[in-house]
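User:
I would dearly like some help making sense of a protein record. Take your time, and here it is.
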Amino acid sequence: MLKQTLSELSRLRPFICRGLLGAALLLAVAAVQAGVQMPATSAEGRAEVKLALGIVHKYRELRADCRALPDEQKAMCFYRLKIGNWDYKEAKLILAKHKLI
């Protein structure tokens, strides 16, 4: 399953930015693969949706974690969110295109 996930990520490289969320994508994609119902689209479309779901999930998780940090660590955490914001917006557009949000 990990090899399949790596293969999907390498095919989708143009769709993602090499940013903060890149390292978390492997875990996120594997986590959502089992529980998400996809509309009937091409295999590439399904992979794109899985990747987008992972990005949105990890971004929201990081955003919630940032709020709970002490003040001296919040600035760096929100800076990391700013770096990942482009990925998050693109992922939401993909999900909207597939009518999942």
